[in-house]
Amino acid sequence: MALDSNKWAENKLLWSALAIFALVVVLTVSLNGSKGLQWILSGLVVGSIYSLIAMGFSVIYSSTRVINFAQGEFSMLGGMLMYTFATKAHVSIWLSFVLSVLVVALIGAAFEQTAIYKLRGSSVITVIIVTIGFSIFLKAIAKWIWGTDPVKIAPFTGEKAITIFKAAIVPQSFWVFGLTVLAVAALFLFFSRTLVGKGMRAAAANSDAASLVGVSTNTTSLIAWTLAAGLGAAAGIIIGPITPPSFSSGLMLGLKGFSAAVLGGLGNIQGAVVGGLMLGVLENIIAGVLPTGYKEAFAFLVLILVLLIRPQGLLGKPEDVKV
Amino acid sequence: MHKKSGFGSAALLICLIMVVGIMAAGCGKKKVSGSKSVYKIGVVLSLSQAQAALGVPEQNALKLLEKKVNDEGGIEGHRVQFLIEDDESLPAKSKEKFTKLVNQEGVTAVIGTSFSGGTAAMTEDAEKNKIPLIGLSATTSLTHPVKKWTFRTPPTTQMVVERALGYIQKNLKLKKIGVLYDSGLFGTEGYETVKATAGKYGLEVVAAESYGTNDPDMTAQLTKIKSTPAQALIVWGTGPAPSIIAKNVQQLAMTIPYIGSHGIANQTFINLAGDAANGVVFPAGRVLVPSSIPADSDWRKTVDEFAKSYKEAYKTEVNTFAGHGWDAGLIMTEAMKAAIKANGDQEKLSASVIRDQIEKTKDLTGIAGTFTYSPSNHDGLKIDDLIMIKIENGAWTEAKSS
Amino acid sequence: MERYLKPAGNKRDYRVLLIVSLVILTVPLWARLIPGEVLHMDIVNIMVLTGIYACAVLGLNLLVGYAGQISLGHAAFFGIGAYTTAILTTRLHWFPSWLGILLAMVVAGVIGYLVGVPVLRLKGNYLAMATLGLGAIASILFSQVKWLTNGNEGIMGIRYLSIFGFKFDSDIKFYFAVWVLVLLIMLFSINTVRSRVGRALRALHSSEVAADAMGVNTGSVKTRVFVLSAALAGLGGALFAHYEQFVSPESFVFSISILFITMVVVGGMGNIWGGLVGVLFLSFLPPVIQALPQWIPGIPSSVTNFSNYELVLYGLLLIVFMIFMPRGIAYGLARGAQMASRGAKHVGERLQARKYEEHK
After folding, report:
1. What angle do CA B267, B272, B275 make, to 5 degrees?
2. What are B153-192's pLDDT values in tens digits?
3. Fewer beta carbons below 10 Å: N end or C end of chain A?
């Protein structure tokens, strides 16, 4: 499940992929100097965003085998709510952050209870349609409340860019990195140290056995959805100052985060991080090196190639890819 | 004994659905009582999905105009009614709504739609069915070459580009330019027009990069442009991206001037880009800087009145899209007035009569400028109706031009 | 119960097809009679696009409902068909449009084969993701390969469909052309499902493993259905091009793929009528939602003035539908009919029993 990735040491493919990646990075910087460093730095920021979204997908997928097409919308809602609390109502940043995350987490939980729970055991396509319906619904509600314009979220600690060897990033980027690290650590601790988390892993691996010892799939699913919704919201808030959210910004985030999750291994938290960072950096290098316009197709190309060649992604196990 | 088959029920359901749907589609046709007939004008706008940011202000403006015209006695006593349909930013729906308005509602003139693909789809039908259409989208090709039944109110991309290039040549006195454009239709058309017209203004495009409309970060493309001899950066796109680019430019400590497109002619750009918006220049209509219009002129009065009533009604500042919607409605209603003056009062004005009067529009003061059409010009506006606007201290001022 | 829910095509279906055909092909006549000042042309208008979409949806229904696969990118094939005929007929003025449509089907089918073979090895969610990615790439290609597709500006001025001199230049003519084709596709589907291929499909759907063990060449069956569904979507696209006379990448975006698959699922997967029910239902749903304020007085105008409330309702309806009728309308109906007839039977028996009692 989320943490039971193929033991890192034994995963030859993973190491080769990381090695090639490192090589590409080094080449880029040496051939392009500070320009190359900028691509990589910016790529890491964007990649962290992808990672956070990917983590949301993975948490839900690993517990319930459901692909949540509304994951991007959770991030969008987080950002929009943050705007309402912090920018419009002038509530303090931290309180707004907590409130926004809570509201979205509640929405995720509510959806899980009304829809996902009822559809336990239905065909894959039925569940897909339900989550798609949910994303349409959320998008329409967002447009109703906030209109069509992107909204402003003030950076947490200022705007002035910081230069590192002639490559510049904005202070908000550090919050993005910080949240990513925090999320990985928190999820790791949750799944490996807490009873609830361990129970969820058990349920994901073998739900019958788990229910025999008292772990119910219902609770697992509810917790997963609440977690993923909250995580998605946090992601949307943290990148809001860099990329202003609007009612339709969920789609792009969702698709990219999704590709990142598949690259790393759907259902795998560490995979989400690896996949996200790699995708972000490589996208930027492609944009820098190749003629303009190829960047957009890159994420989808990665998605398809991974699915065709190694659907379980870099960190996943072949058994993960069962119907 | 016949058991009703589930599948037979499916067939019955199919018929039932169709009947209900048909009745639903037919709903909403209210008989208007009154002495004089109501003049109906069809309107197709993108009120949802991708292009909603354009369609909603256009709708707001048309509703305002409808009220104003009717309050002032209508069109020689005839009430005016804009029948507004949403095409959901899909060309197939634009065409469907156009047909619905013409066939079901019997309109003899249509305004719309907000985006180029939809307008292109409708223009085919307009020409085929001989219905005058006033388009609200930006692409030059809508009216070049001129099509008999299709007109427009927004300036062509060609005009906007020339306004910007002229500024770079005469005011900034620069020669080499870099272009960063949205890979969608708006941005690509902007770039190709810049490329084709640069020579006319003694400019050379030394760098060109594109980005996706929803991309979160454009530093990669900007570093490439930074390393070329480009002396000015032209950014052509809509949505949040131009504001992200403005911040990226600041982040990378790029010092070359940022020249945007009319896609950033809204307060949102300033809100999102914050400090980075200052110094940005872009071509747009004068409605954003009413003080650039000579005081006491008709134009100034019209714009001030419009901005005021728009704000009162919708609690938000007016923008150029609203202006284009207003202008289209104005031209349409004025053409109808002229038609009655020329041909006498009629129960219903025919399409060809309306078309002819639209084409005869001369020096009509709208929001975006003064409109004059002719058989060879269905654009209405000229380059000089546009100004270069500079953002200073978070507000718009006219960039003094020669 | 099983008799109602088994996806088997049988003689009943032919009878139903006959009735449905009669109803649909005479719409232009009887639509006039419906009260509400409705011009019959308006229905014809909506139905043309419905029929065009139906081509894609019927093919997709076979793929999803019978072969048990998923495709979230079918708008790509729709678009490929549209662009094929658009490019051929606008660049080569002599190129006959009916040939353009045939070629559109072939090209879509061939591309369907090329992508289908590798992609169909995946299952369930993974297959869904792969088709989603393919659809997205197709979208990007439509707008970036400018020398072929004219990019975002699209291709204008596509000719009318004409077959040996007869031009389909009005809604009515197109209506008949499209719906005759759709009904023929229905006939073909019913036939297919009754045949050996159909049985193989059903075996495949219930358990790929078992089907494999029984000697069904699952790989080739899946591919063949995929190719067929791609070709049918291409057919729809080609008709779309000649009807709209304008194609641009905007008409083939992700939301259209979702629309197709939603029509299949909401209509009823694995039921031969599912596709048709779905496409009709979802095509007429927006006008119904739009008309709701007139039928239900209490909705405040702040809600209805907002044109997006339709989308809110649409999303909600999808969710509610899937929860209460996860197998689609056709099944919900069948169950309803079953329960109704059981109820009627129950009442009938009770009455009989009472009659006996009284006659004692």
Report:
1. 95
2. 999 999 999 999 999 999 999 999 999 999 888 899 999 9
3. C
Report yes or no: C319 and A115 within 8 Å, Cβ to Cβ: yes
Which of the four CATH numbers 1.10.10, 1.20.1300, 1.20.120, 1.10.3470 does domain A8-320 have?
1.10.3470
Q: Report CB contact under 8 Å: B91, C251.
A: yes
CB B158 within 8 A of CB B165: no
Residue of C43, C49, C52, C152 to mutate for B, most B C-beta atoms under 10 A: C152
- How far is C-alpha A20 from the chain's CA centre? 24
> C171-194 and C11-25 are packed helices; what angle lies between their axes, rounded to 10 degrees?
180
Phi, psi (rounded to 5 degrees) for A55: -60, -40
Among chain B residues, CA nearest to C342:
B3
Residue C131 to residue C118: CA distance in whole angstroms? 11
Whether a cis peptide bond, with omega within 30° of 0, leads into A311 is: no
What are residue C155's phi and psi, to 5 degrees? -110, 120
Q: Is A140 on the interface with C (CB under 8 A)?
A: yes
Q: Nearest by CB to C42, which of B9, B103, B188? A: B103
* Nearest CB to A293 within list B210, B214, B253: B210
Backbone dihedral angles phi then psi of residue B359, each to the nearest 5 degrees: -65, -25
Pair A306, A315: CB distance under 8 Å? no
- Strands (E) across B218-344 are located at 232-236, 258-259, 281-285
Q: What is the complex's ipTM, to 2 decimals?
A: 0.88
User: Are B158 and B193 contacting, i.e. CB atoms less than 8 angstroms apart?
Assistant: yes
- pLDDT, tens digit (0-9, with 9 covering 90-100), for B319-340: 888 999 999 999 999 999 999 9
Contact with chain C for residue A3, Cβ under 8 A: no
Pick the closest to residue B214 from C150, A257, A68 (CA basis). Answer: A257
Task: Please list the helix, strand and coil fractions of chain C in percent, rounded to the nearest 5, in that order.
Answer: 80, 5, 20
Pairwise CA distance, residues C265 & C254, whole Å: 17
Query: B158-290+386-398: what fold?
Result: Rossmann fold (3.40.50)
Residues in chain B within 8 Å Cβ distance of A135: none
- What chains are in contact with B, requiring at least 3 Cβ pairs below 8 Å? A, C
For an interface test with B, the pick among A48, A76, A146, A149 (most B C-beta atoms closer than 10 Å) comes out as: A149
* CATH code of the domain made up of B39-155+300-382: 3.40.50.2300
